[in-house]
Design a protein that fits this description.
16 helices; Amidase signature (AS) enzymes; 469 residues; 13% strand; 11-stranded mixed β-sheet; alpha/beta
Length: 469
């Protein structure tokens, strides 16, 4: 443990619990790494150095006094700048909220605090969480730690880049159209979006009433399982949160895939897919087969309707949330974002109601198509290799719009369907940039998706690779 910043969530929690590393030493290691390298990555918005060190010292004293420790005790974390902490600025990646200080703390932050995690501050993100690449005109773009001119994925850009760069062990992101899974894939880390309603959204900046999700970006599937056990579950402050019991996700990570069937849809996910992505995906399937899984190609024609409806829902709900500011402060938005929001006002109400009313029937249809006789669905997280920041900058050139939106083509359907979905690294392309494998399961079957992800990581080391900062 020469560099404590390299420890994963479970490694850091274990080292602290056993007395092999102090919480203060782990925080200082992360702070040193941030100070040495974030000038080029631009992942961090606010660094709460003194508060983090004080929290670490308190945990060290508690351990010395044989106090009961939480499952995340001593683990350094930072979070996307849209999770409210009472009295602290939560800017949401915007100019409009650059001075916003909420009066209450997000439920997920309270649950992480209670589990012993150390909050070191906030992270860069796309403005109001509304783009898949992570561009930000107000704080500056976040850069991919594997290759700086390339994008990080968004909107949880700082979360993905910071976990990959080993600035902290894990981070919260949010996912409305792929904003956890995209930076996880593009930055070479693990990210999970739970079932819709699985994790409370109280105290988190809203984007889409019916598709927002809270979840972690981590080094490993085991790390994600531990954090999900802490943050998932019913919350009285969020009436939309599910009362479904929360299982021990970590206990489900057996590594045994014998008898497990993986479905690979023929439609949608491979349309225009690049050769490097397909090659890495097929190699990943072989790893799962070697663990005992079977793989079957299935037809899922419902995906074409899903791909249309998801855009209607996200645009209308996003435009609704921003209606007042768009009337009064439209000039404070980046050009690409105001353009996206204006588009939402042009969608007829009948289209929006149709898109909402079709969600249940299309979910049932997709489950019949993809899950009949199968346990999980596997796809590439992105169809393309990681693009550069310049290639996806739609403020610089509207001609980049198609490439910009294509980044999230494979993640958006699972938001509309509300299914739990994990992205894990499964290779690198010829430019040294990560490629992601996406695993989806039935509603509230996060444990199964994580089990498959963990089994894959037992036989590969893509998740253990560290960018040469």
């Amino acid at each position: 443990m020469s560099d404590l910043a390299l420890l994963s969530v479970t490694e850091a929690a274990g080292a602290f619990a056993k007395g092999e590393a102090s919480a203060e030493a782990m925080v200082r290691a992360c702070l040193a790494r941030i100070e040495a390298h974030d000038g080029r990555i631009n992942a961090v918005v606010r660094l709460d150095r003194e508060e983090a060190l004080a929290a670490a010292a308190a945990l060290d004293r508690a351990r010395a006094g044989n106090a009961k420790l939480g499952p995340l005790a001593g683990v350094p974390m930072m979070h996307k700048d849209m999770y409210y902490r009472a009295g602290k600025v939560s800017g949401c990646g915007s100019a409009i909220r650059r001075d916003f200080r909420p009066k209450a703390t997000a439920t997920v932050l309270e649950r992480l605090d209670a589990a012993g995690a150390i909050d070191m501050g906030t992270l860069n993100m796309a403005e109001f969480a509304q783009n898949p690449t992570g561009h930000n005109r107000h704080h500056g773009d976040c850069h991919n730690p594997w290759n700086l001119p390339y994008c990080t994925g968004g909107s949880s850009s700082g979360s993905g880049a910071g976990v990959a760069a080993r600035f902290f062990a894990a981070a919260l992101g949010s996912d409305t159209g792929g904003s956890i899974r995209l930076p996880a894939s593009i930055c070479g880390v693990t990210g999970i979006k739970g079932t819709q309603t699985r994790v409370s959204r109280a105290g988190a900046m809203p984007l889409s009433f019916s598709m927002d999700n809270v979840g972690p970006l981590t080094r490993t599937a085991r790390d994600a399982a531990r954090i999900m056990r802490v943050i998932a579950g019913k919350d009285p402050r969020d009436p939309t949160s599910a009362a479904e019991p929360v299982p021990d996700y970590e206990a489900a990570l057996t590594g045994d895939l014998r008898g497990l069937s993986v479905a690979v849809p023929r439609e949608w996910f491979f349309d225009g897919a690049e050769e490097a992505v397909v090659k890495a995906f097929e190699a990943a399937l072989e790893v799962l087969k070697a663990r005992g899984a079977t793989v079957t190609r299935v037809s899922a024609p419902s995906l074409h309707a899903v791909g249309t409806y998801v855009s209607v829902v996200s645009r209308v709900e996003g435009a609704t949330i921003h209606a007042e500011w768009m009337r009064e402060r439209a000039g404070d938005y980046a050009t690409h974002l105001s353009g996206r929001l204006y588009g939402g006002y042009a969608i007829p109400a009948t289209w929006y109601v149709e898109a909402l009313s079709r969600r249940g029937p299309l979910l049932r249809q997709f489950c019949r198509e993809a899950f009949a006789g199968h346990h999980v669905v596997a796809t590439p997280t992105l169809r393309m290799r990681v693009p550069t920041l310049a290639e996806t900058d739609i403020d610089a050139s509207p001609d980049n719009w198609a490439r910009h939106m294509a980044v999230s083509a494979n993640t958006r359907p699972f938001n509309y369907l509300g299914l739990p979905t994990v992205s894990i690294p499964c290779g690198f392309d010829d430019r040294g940039l990560p490629i992601g494998l996406q695993i989806a399961a039935r509603p509230f079957a996060e444990a199964r998706a994580l089990m498959v992800a963990d089994a894959f990581q037992r036989d590969t080391d893509w998740h253990a690779c560290v960018p040469a900062l």
